[in-house]
């Protein structure tokens, strides 16, 4: 029998590098870990017991989701139905119970195909979200008072959205194979728990997170299909294709991008085409409503409108918001092609979605859910993440206190208009802060918390470790800067197989 090779004779590139320990690299994570006994040891990190990172993070995500449900208890016990302002003073408002009757689910109307009573003729949500809402109504008991049915409808939706929350946490945990514990940022995000059951956004977020996981596994077709489904549930996921196009251009990876684009278009058409053909007016309501909707909560445009004697028209705001978004897209493309080192996919995905949020004419509090998984993958730094989350929690409280003020009559309970404007500004500044930190990481790759541990682009799939073929500016005339690596140099290339269970 041939002798087994010794550890000393094994090439360094064969050894799989150790997972990254946030409690050993991040001061905030290390300080927070003292609440549960201090930084974890190697045995716990490698998942020697049943408590692997994926299982721990999934259970923590479910636990935080349940706490979010508990926070909605005052509304479940009556504030949704018997007090217009109390659902705001308790910060427990949700669209879900109100739309059960308001969008015809209580009466058995078929979304998109049957007209609704009132001003909103058809359901104003994309098709896959409408199917999700309809499926929840099938599971809702039709007996009892309308209040009983609305309570049941909210609970059914909450159960379905809890599955989406767990999927998001698991997908983020497994996307960066060496950094599974970064998934705790998703699981513990306070704004995530507070806004999870306001609306149905978690469906699109879960599909997007799953798509990013598939791209990291070098499965562009699965990525495209999942992203197309996500876009059929909410509009924002398709924006991610823009930075991916520019990244693939810089790396010369046209075939994977074409496969992803084709899969996304096919999946979106499969979901939308039947409704588009047989109920076009109902299908198009989401798109026409988005254009016709005036300036609304949470946006910079609302601050301008409420402080102006002659507010801009909706058409003008639409034009200006579109132009600003196009400028942001151009800036992201220029950054991608001129950066000293090719940016990571997650970094650009966060920047483009954040640009859409910052320039849009409305910012509902649950839109923070779109950014949470992208923020964790783009900049897994506890301090910066928690600063941003604090700003979002402040906005979450601010909007409900403002609505309490406007609905409490002469009592004026809550936050006046000027105070609400400060809450909006805090949300905008918090998001901009995270954008600035990510742009700094792109321009100075040695500051990137992911690349400092010796990796290139763990969520980049075929882009991970790829050579550049098209670069502009000074980066085209210089060698890529060496990555600062903490600890021993390791090879972590395309041969890796991500394993979130560690």
Give a description of the structure.
The protein is an all-alpha fold and 502 residues long. The chain has one domain (49-477). Helices cover 60% and strands 0% of the residues. The chain has helices at 22-25, 27-33, 42-45, 53-71, 73-82, 86-89, 95-102, 127-138, 146-175, 183-188, 190-195, 201-216, 220-233, 241-251, 254-278, 280-292, 300-306, 314-338, 345-359, 368-378, 382-407, 417-443. The radius of gyration is 24 Å and the shape is globular.
What topology emerges from the helices and strands here?
Elements: H1 22-25, H2 27-33, H3 42-45, H4 53-71, H5 73-82, H6 86-89, H7 95-102, H8 127-138, H9 146-175, H10 183-188, H11 190-195, H12 201-216, H13 220-233, H14 241-251, H15 254-278, H16 280-292, H17 300-306, H18 314-338, H19 345-359, H20 368-378, H21 382-407, H22 417-443
Pfam family, one: GT87
Organism: Streptomyces ardesiacus
Protein name: Glycosyltransferase family 87 protein
Order of helices and strands: HHHHHHHHHHHHHHHHHHHHHH
**Hey, roughly how much beta strand do the residues contain?**
under 5%
Q: Tell me the count of domains.
A: 1
Give the termini distance in whole angstroms. 32 Å
Number of helices: 22
SS-derived structural category: mainly alpha
Q: Which blocks of ≥5 consecutive residues have pLDDT under 50? A: 1-16, 481-502
* Rg from alpha-carbon coordinates: 24 Å
Main sheet overview? none
Mean pLDDT: 87
Please give the number of β-strands.
0
Helix content: 55-70%
Shape: globular
Organism: Streptomyces ardesiacus
Biased composition (Basic and acidic residues): 15-24
Membrane topology: Multi-pass membrane protein
Protein name: Glycosyltransferase family 87 protein
